[in-house]
UniProtKB/TrEMBL annotation:
Cell compartment(s), UniProt: Cell membrane
NCBIfam families tied to this protein: PRK08965.1-5
Transmembrane segments: 20-50
Keywords associated with the record: Cell membrane, Membrane, Transmembrane, Transmembrane helix
Organism (species): Agromyces badenianii
Protein name, per record: Na+/H+ antiporter subunit E
Membrane topology value: Multi-pass membrane protein
Keyword Transmembrane helix in annotation: yes
Pfam families: MNHE (PF01899)
Cellular component, GO annotation: plasma membrane
InterPro entries named among the record's database cross-references: Cation_antiport_E
Family in the record: Belongs to the CPA3 antiporters (TC 2.A.63) subunit E family.
């Protein structure tokens, strides 16, 4: 790669990270509770350091956002939180209920650090599930799930996680990632149709 091509690639990477850098600068300013030249300059320097210098891999945004899918993601999150909150509240006051929970491994469809992080956060926000570990190399989420008494319950949790990942990818993921999760969704539906049509 020539020097000029390397410079273009470097600036393209910075441009794709610009929303993250702006968000970090705003967070730094909010923490100081004042907007001055010093806080803005130090915020920019720290944001560049966090995204470019630290040993963690840089967070690269796809540069794509689908407003409709983003709206659907937000509405589904509110629905999931509301329903799960009521279910957990009922279980908490039900004297007949005996806890039976599981640690479940879920294989994600993508290897994006950003998608993995957002999926883990979204899952943990919903009452009844919390992510306890992430295997970044293999794209695995380990989560503690409430009320998983049968294999069907465990399968339901896995499908919920994959559905959340799918909605996040369709909202902010790259076109390649979106195509991948759509293909995986079609495959799951085909497998479900075959299993339902199979003789008992």
């Amino acid at each position: 790669m020539t020097h000029a091509a390397a410079d273009v690639s470097r600036w393209r990477s910075v441009w794709r990270q610009l929303p993250l850098i702006v968000a970090l600068v705003l967070l730094w300013v909010f923490l100081w509770d004042q907007v001055t030249v010093l806080t803005v300059v130090t915020g920019v320097l720290l944001a560049l350091g966090v995204t470019r210098v630290l040993y963690l891999p840089p967070v690269l945004l796809s540069g794509r956002f689908n407003p409709w899918r983003g709206l659907l993601l937000g509405l589904r999150m509110m629905y999931d939180v509301t329903i799960a909150s009521m279910e957990v509240a009922v279980l908490a006051i039900d004297p007949r209920w005996k806890p039976l929970n599981s640690i479940i491994a879920v294989q994600l469809l993508t290897r994006s650090d950003l998608v993995t992080t957002l999926t883990a956060e979204a899952i943990s926000v919903v009452p009844g599930t919390v992510v306890v570990d992430i295997d970044r190399e293999r794209g695995l989420l380990y989560l503690h799930a409430l009320g998983t008494r049968t294999e069907a319950d465990i399968d339901r949790v896995r499908r919920a996680v994959l559905g959340t990942e799918e909605r996040i990818v369709l909202a902010i993921g790259s076109r390649a990632q979106a195509a991948s999760v759509r293909a995986a969704r079609r495959e799951r539906r085909a497998n479900d149709a075959r299993s339902k049509g199979a003789p008992a």
